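Fold this sequence, please.
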Amino acid sequence: VGTIRNCCFDTDHHDWLISDKVDIVPRLVLPLASGAGDSITEEEMDSLPVDLQYLDEDKKVESDVDIRIMLLESLTQLCATKSGREQLRDKNIYVILRELHKTEKDRACLLAVENLVDILIKREDEINVENYKHLDVPEDLHEKFQKMDEIYLK
């Protein structure tokens, strides 16, 4: 998972990773999904990639929190580009993240879920950036965001 996550840092390859040739998104999301998605509607289920639909009831979320976090970080990296964000929205992975958020106990993993959801629920006209990695974040804001995360994790 760490190797795949590292590949997701390179935005030049996002379109290829998300394309049908590699189709990385369902493979990153599947370990985060549970077969007990009782609150997923039929419409939501049908909007998911086929590999994420109608999972066996005994399908469990990955038990290793570090792997869950790396999977979420990989998905977040894919959201750096507008095309990546649009693809993840089109695949409606928000539904899986919503269900994961309901059961997740680890604060660091919850923060990773919430950070990813924050990106996905925004409209592109609100983001108005082709690539997040091209943004210059002032140092004082960077420190402020880090402190906010530290407070959340306590």
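The chain has a mean pLDDT of 94. The radius of gyration is 15 Å.
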